[in-house]
User: Fold this.
Amino acid sequence: EAGVAQSPRYKIIEKRQSVAFWCNPISGHATLYWYQQILGQGPKLLIQFQNNGVVDDSQLPKDRFSAERLKGVDSTLKIQPAKLEDSAVYLCASSLALGSLGTQYFGPGTRLLVL
Amino acid sequence: AQTVTQSQPEMSVQEAETVTLSCTYDTSENNYYLFWYKQPPSRQMILVIRQEAYKQQNATENRFSVNFQKAAKSFSLKISDSQLGDTAMYFCAFIFPTGTASKLTFGTGTRLQVTL
Assistant:
């Protein structure tokens, strides 16, 4: 079974530029998550999708971050404009269960450096 | 609010020895799940072990086992016969049901170094 795929693996941009990350969850997984992991910290949830609907985006900085999962499969996370403090690893995860207790499987992450 | 605390930023253990990583959490919920995730230097987060709060029996997965003390809100991970490949960041995480929404709350992690 293929795991969660993410691209790109690394990205370096200057502040005020825009950037987009892509995630392909495990086939059949209804729930998709985006996490931000700042160096030295645990991951923090940014947004959760169930199929193509948002169920929790309470910690997403909506003035600069946006995410979509139009067909209920792939998802993109965008930052525009980027700030220095956005430097982090962005992790995508997916889970099978529609309920809230399904084990989450993580992708390799996208490491973003904002200069 | 739910919080997860890992009080050991770094630990070291010799190969073949046993090490225990500590985790405490705070919640008013009665039904929840606890996890230990491993994040090797390549940064892919891997599930190590999972414990349902309603189960009294401690979960085990080969060399990995937990000591779950619900009343004390403690969830430690024991790694037996440590191997070089166990070198990684270990995160304790907590989740409780809120309808369709769910959020893993992670601790700050413990960096484990396995040495020869």
User: Anything to note?
Assistant: The mean pLDDT of chain A is 92. Residues 9 and 110 of chain A are 4 Å apart (CA to CA). The interface with chain B takes residues 31, 33, 40-45, 48, 50, 55-56, 89, 91, 93, 98-109, 111 of chain A (CB under 8 Å). The longest strand of chain A covers residues 88-95.
